[in-house]
Write a structure and sequence with these properties.
mainly alpha; globular
Length: about 170
């Protein structure tokens, strides 16, 4: 019975947090992403115009490779993109809510009812510090046109920062 209550409470909190987080991202991050995509689209279209002057045997191969990269699946602008962002935010918030509620449940099980809420707040703050704040100190957002480290190096930085902060 308590397990079901924890799951439903976690889902309710995750939906509320997902709505707020998606709204904040829509106001702050989406304009930057859309501007970056305009830049990327211009960068992809530029080589297509230069390949027309190349010899006929070589122009088709280069343009075809660019076209295949451009055809990778991406959510459509507008509702579909917002819906997938909302789903990702809710899943992330649900996992964090379950962790916080599990810590609160253990505190309540031990009989420390007065300390369950502060312990949950400390757990949530620690999760934010470990998974968001510490890795972002040295791992800035990669904007198109900006020099960035290789993907493996960035992933290694994130893992080492999160593990060292934990």
């Amino acid at each position: 019975m308590i397990f079901q209550r924890l799951i439903w409470a976690g889902l309710a909190v995750a939906l509320a947090v997902g709505i707020v987080q998606t709204g904040v991202q829509h106001l702050q991050a989406v304009p930057i992403i859309l501007a970056a995509e305009v830049y990327e689209d211009q960068k992809i279209e530029a080589p297509a115009t230069t390949t027309e002057a190349a010899p006929a045997g070589h122009a088709g191969h280069e343009g075809h490779a660019m076209a295949e990269e451009a055809e990778a699946w991406a959510p459509a602008d507008g509702f579909e993109r917002t819906a997938w962002t909302f789903a990702a935010n809710v899943l992330h918030a649900f996992s964090m809510a379950l962790l916080v509620f599990a810590v609160m449940g253990v505190a309540l099980w031990r009989g420390t009812t007065l300390r369950a809420l502060p312990l949950a707040l400390v757990t949530a703050a620690a999760g934010w510090l470990v998974f968001h704040f510490w890795p972002s100190i040295g791992l800035h957002a990669e904007i198109p046109g900006m020099d960035a480290a290789r993907l493996g190096s960035r992933q290694g930085w994130w893992i080492l920062a999160a593990v060292s902060a934990a």
